[in-house]
Amino acid sequence: MSTFRNPFAAAAAALVLSACGPQAQQPTETPAPAETPSQPSTDTAGSNTPREMDPLFAQAAQEFNVPAELLKAVSYTETRWHMAVGTVEFPGQEAAFGLMALRGADLEQGAALAGVSVEAARTDAAANIRAGAALLSHFATEANVERGDLGAWAPVAARLSGISHPDAQAEHVHRGVYAVINEGAVALNTDGSVAASLEPVKVEAKSARPQVRAMAAGPDYGASIWRPSPNYNARPAGAGGDPSMIIIHTCEGGYAGCWGWLANSASGVSAHYVVNESGSEVSQLVRESSRAWHIGATYDCNLNGGKECWLNGSSSNNFTIGIEHGGFASQSSFPAGQIETSAKLSCDIARDNAIVKDSYHIVAHGRLQPATRTDPGPNWPWSSYISKINSYCGTTTPAGEIVIDSNAANNDAAKARFELTGAWTAGSSAGYYGSGYYFAATEAVSAPATFWFYLPTAQTRTVDGWWVAGTNRSTSAAFIAFNADGANLGTATANQQINGGKWVALGTFNFSAGWNKVQLSRWQAAGSVVIADALRVR
């Protein structure tokens, strides 16, 4: 297994490890057919990656008269010197194999030119590099490239990438392959030994450069570049079309090829965002309010901890926002910069769309589409990722603070519990805390919603409420506080027609040691409803 770093330049460090990869879904909702990877999808990066790659690159470069710098840079840009195992992210796109990320007809032609079997070119590092070098050499001959001129190989690198989108192709060559050549890169094994290295060489790519123009910011995320995809449609009307989950994908390929594919109308797929390997750039392709085609599955809450079962049977595209990441589900780790940037993006999405910031609402593509997808893979750092999202959003629970959600599964049973008396109905309008809420009609009945919380000692605490506002809500919803002995500490009233989707202070009370409670009463004039969503004790 290898870890990656770049001692030569900060920019190159940004180019290190990366991953990308969900599969997009077409508007017909027909899931893409499963692909059979050449190796188990549970392989981790490094499990089949050689510890010493430099000799393999040098030998192939000499054998096929290809610059070693170019061969290494193409491999690094495509895979971060990771043996891609042939999983698919997007329907219609061939799977990438090996250190060179060879696909489809290119893989077969390269294997034939190198005199190796297609299977060897897929699974053996040396054979894969030789196949890539043989193909580059063949393309150079056809293009009449001056082989001693490193910059003149740029069109050959562009052709090998298979990227058809002209802007994405130019980005791949100039800000990918030749940026690595100019800045250098190093991959280290876990024991600190060098797995692969590329000394920086100053050279200019002799091919069409990315267009020089002011890049418009994404309409929903100012830190992104707007690269609109035509592959989207309107979300369905109603709560089932409101964004309530974020899906994390890996592209199963490099960043430029990923957004170039998603921005191409012929691909029939898209995602809302793509994050590059280093975290230095984010592309937005679809507005968050629109429905991108990034997952080919209908929702089944049994795959997601029993959460949001009311969405069962609907297309997961309807209510999700998709983030692709440059890289592979099979890699052993993800670059810190990519995780940081992605967490900031997820925070922004969750905050703007009132999405719960937990692993049931920010979820792996492979969890919701397990029959054909595994991304972002077993090594995506879920715990630290969710923690970073909450930290960036300022929602990390302070020490001693207790949140009681109306969904018991979200509560720490040792400190918080929720119960209902009488007839209450589950609600799902946007803006709730945790996982939904409950509502009930006001009437002269003692059938409250009760928020219990445990305090080890007598303490003075402030209680905040959270609800989904609406015009039919009570303007004087009564929250009654009781200590552990059942003594009434006082009543706070709240206008639930306003201030929805945020914490609202209800009052400060002197609670006792043990299980205290706050009850939301229904006992008032008929004609409105009260909302039992969440309480915070701080």
From TrEMBL:
Any idea where the N-acetylmuramoyl-L-alanine amidase domain is? 229-377
Could you say which residues form the signal peptide? 1-24
Residue numbers spanned by region Disordered: 22-52
Q: Which Gene Ontology molecular function entries are recorded, alphabetically?
A: N-acetylmuramoyl-L-alanine amidase activity
Record keywords, A-Z: Cell wall biogenesis/degradation, Hydrolase, Signal
State the Gene Ontology BP annotations.
Answer: cell wall organization; peptidoglycan catabolic process; peptidoglycan turnover
Residue spans of biased composition, Low complexity class: 22-42
Which superkingdom does the taxonomy of this entry point to? Answer: Bacteria
Reactions it catalyzes: Hydrolyzes the link between N-acetylmuramoyl residues and L-amino acid residues in certain cell-wall glycopeptides
What SUPFAM superfamilies does UniProt report for this protein, alphabetically? Lysozyme-like, N-acetylmuramoyl-L-alanine amidase-like
List the EC numbers from the record: 3.5.1.28
> What is the name of this protein?
N-acetylmuramoyl-L-alanine amidase
This protein's species is Corallococcus sicarius
The organism that produces this protein has a lineage beginning with: Bacteria, Pseudomonadati, Myxococcota, Myxococcia, Myxococcales
